[in-house]
């Protein structure tokens, strides 16, 4: 089975997603970076929602040998993510958008950033995964609102 997700976020996403380190830094009240432009809305999924849907697929024998999209709760801009996260954290330090040049320079010290540069095209225009197949075969898609998911993520990160 091949399962495709948009970029994801949640209390356990950490460095594994574009938003992981950004939300961790916001929760800690630190300056941070945002991968890509903060103006163009993109699709994200709350990791607990993704887990529920992937497990549901894994439980079904007829889901194997197929490709599946697991969509998020829609699209949202980086500016809106930062606003929600900073409001939930009660802190507002600068968040700097990193484009190709910034990521390339950062890649000199942090090798993983070089790989992100190659994938940056995914942040340049909205890309929304279709939920039609999942809903037709499995049922409703689990969609936690960005307000609830981001605020919950910040709350959990602040407990650590």
What do these coordinates show?
It is a single chain. With 160 residues, the chain is α/β, with parallel strands linked by helices. It has a single domain (2-154), classed as NAD(P)-binding Rossmann-like Domain (Rossmann fold), CATH 3.40.50.720. The chain is 42% helix and 15% strand. The chain has seven helices and seven strands; from the N terminus they run ββαββαββαβαααα. The strands form three sheets. The protein has a three-stranded mixed sheet.
Topology:
Blueprint lengths: L1 E3 L2 E3 L10 H8 L4 E4 L6 E5 H12 L8 E3 L5 E2 L1 H12 L5 E4 L1 H8 L4 H8 L12 H6 L8 H14 L1
Parallel strand pairs: 1-5, 2-4, 3-7
Antiparallel strand pairs: 4-6
